[in-house]
Amino acid sequence: MSDQKDSVWVIAEQIRGEIPVICIEIIGQARKLADELEVPVEVILLGKDISDQLNLFFFAGADVVHLGNAADFEIYQADIFTETIVSLAKERHPQIMLIGSTFMGRELAPLIAANLGTGLTAHCIDLVLDDNGILEQQVPAYGGILSIICPEKRPQIATVARGVFPMPALDENRSGIILPIEPLEGKDIRVKTLEILHEEPKGVPLETAPIVVAGGAGAGSIEGWLEIQALAEILNAALGSTRPAVDEGWTELETMIGQSGRMVSPEIYIGVGISGELQHMVGIVGAKVMIAINNDPKSPVFEQVDYGIVEDCRVFLPALVDKLKNIKEFGGRAAHVV
Amino acid sequence: MDSIFRIVVCVKAVPEPKAAESIKIDPVTRALPRLDIPLEINPLDKNALEVALQLKETFPAHITVISMGPPPAGDVVKECLALGADEGILLSDPAFAGADAYATAYTLARGINKIGPIEVVLCGRASSDGATEWVGPELAVFLDMPVVTMAREFVETKGKSWQVKADIEHGYRLVQVELPAVFTVTQDVNTPRTLSFSGIIKARKREITTWGIDDLDLPAESAGLKGSPTIVSKLTYIESKREYQIIEGTLDEKVEFLIDKFAEAGVIT
Ligand SMILES: Cc1cc2nc3c(=O)[nH]c(=O)nc-3n(C[C@H](O)[C@H](O)[C@H](O)COP(=O)(O)OP(=O)(O)OC[C@H]3O[C@@H](n4cnc5c(N)ncnc54)[C@H](O)[C@@H]3O)c2cc1C
Ligand SMILES: Nc1ncnc2c1ncn2[C@@H]1O[C@H](COP(=O)(O)O)[C@@H](O)[C@H]1O
Q1: Model pTM?
Q2: Phi, psi of B102 (to 5 degrees)
Q3: pLDDT digits over B10-37, tens only?
Q4: What angle do CA A33, A39, A40 make, to 5 degrees?
Q5: A295 lines ligand 1 (CB under 6 A)
Q6: ipTM attached to this prediction
Q7: Mutate which of B45, B141, B150, B183 to disrupt the A interface (most A C-beta within 10 Å)?
Q8: Which of A44, A118, A139, B246 is the most exposed place for a label (fewest CB within 10 A)?
């Protein structure tokens, strides 16, 4: 591990004392890229009281962990985190830097990139190397896939949402080096997080849900949206959405599935009033069964799913929900269908 | 003039959503069609402007709207004036074309520096067409200001040290920030006022300032495509077709069909 130049970096983080899954997923992808490039994977983690969780990084593929373990790093502080990571990057010259699309990552990535005078690509759905070893950062656009590259400036920085890359196989025999990061001295802090308030997450979490019911602009109104929500509830499904549904204020941004939202991989995906735009569809990774309910028989959504129902959702959903309620009440379907 | 509190709102002219969807790769030619797409104000930038307008209702302030874009983006800037902004600036030059988030932020920063000393810069969380969320924070770096992204509530706006609530995973953080500072705002921050149709028509008559590359003391290699660290290397057409089946029959039959599928998957018993 003598030559650390050109390594692949992952900026990890700690949320409520835990390492989020996204960090491990992107270490897995960093490992693949680093193997092709024949360079080490280095993980940067700033936090407090975290040493006991570091093995996971090594098991997932890290060679080096730069660990800032100090009171100053307890919660994300933009100025401190940016300057700490930027100065380390200037010293060690990574060629690639991967950052999770968490709230911290989405603020920190552009701060790091602008300070290093390099480019970055948001919400990538795949990362591969081209023939010259340059990182192709793929994002959906115009009904196709754009490959974005940062040909000259380094590092090449990309953000990735949870679920884009699979959880890597953990190799418990792997280990690595931990290098301490010292907190900066006398840094003036212009912006300071005073406190963090966690609200209890609502509903079923999207990423791990076996069933996802997603609603789109076709809901037509908040009343129409509530029908979609009712279907999700009775199926004990996670509720997802498209961007127009969020723009309308029917649901929160946290429910948005797709390129700039969340990635899901359920057993069953049911899309209601959704047209099948690629930016949404890329968020449904490897769903087993896909169903679309749309009143337009020509909707492009149909050819991207397994089963299409051509109906007005405002009429169809109440009927479906009623039936499901009946089944629930009468203790299962067998008793009901005769 | 000097003592007045100066706010800059960054506003992007984006394709109207319906029109935006028509920009698709042609499956046969595999090329992008050239279309004249009607532009509108990026939805979240209306929230950013509304923050400025509401601040101005509580203390004396001067609001400048700035946008980088092609000449038709000027109409969007004019609409912001009709909504209550005091001054509108369009950064427009063929040399700015093809800018990625980095070059966009860099050019906007030059424009904002030319305005003079300012206290607050407001951006939307994301633009509807780019949706990187980068421009606000990168702008902050180029202006050497702190940034708070995803602000959902301006809690304390007296003096030079403000407090805002900003979104995080399942909750929010309370952030204290020293002005001058950049904020990006979410949809939850307020309900923006709108213009009537006649208001939009009247807005077209408002005067705005246009600055090109020479006005900004910006070297050509720092603007537009040339100033962009990232480029598009290729555009691939993808077909994600499944062997799909449209379920025929009456509404009840379709309901039954889905119930069967749910039962098969063990979702219901
Ligand atoms: C950079 C970028 C990033 C983006 N990221 C995302 C993202 O992460 N997630 C996302 O979702 N979008 C994203 N988008 C937006 C995306 O391109 C589409 O605009 C969006 O997914 C469309 O949502 P929709 O299908 O709900 O709406 P529409 O496209 O308007 O479709 C509505 C559908 O509902 C049907 N319908 C209407 N009435 C009824 C009815 N009564 N019953 C049944 N069906 C009905 C219509 O036939 C239509 O097919 C992004 C866009 C850009 C440019
Ligand atoms: N060309 C532009 N002109 C003015 N403001 C912009 C421009 N592009 C982006 N912005 C601002 O940056 C925010 C985030 O945009 P984006 O980084 O593209 O998601 C927008 O909501 C605007 O406030």
Answers
A1: 0.94
A2: -60, -55
A3: 999 999 987 777 777 777 776 766 667 8
A4: 95
A5: yes
A6: 0.94
A7: B141
A8: B246
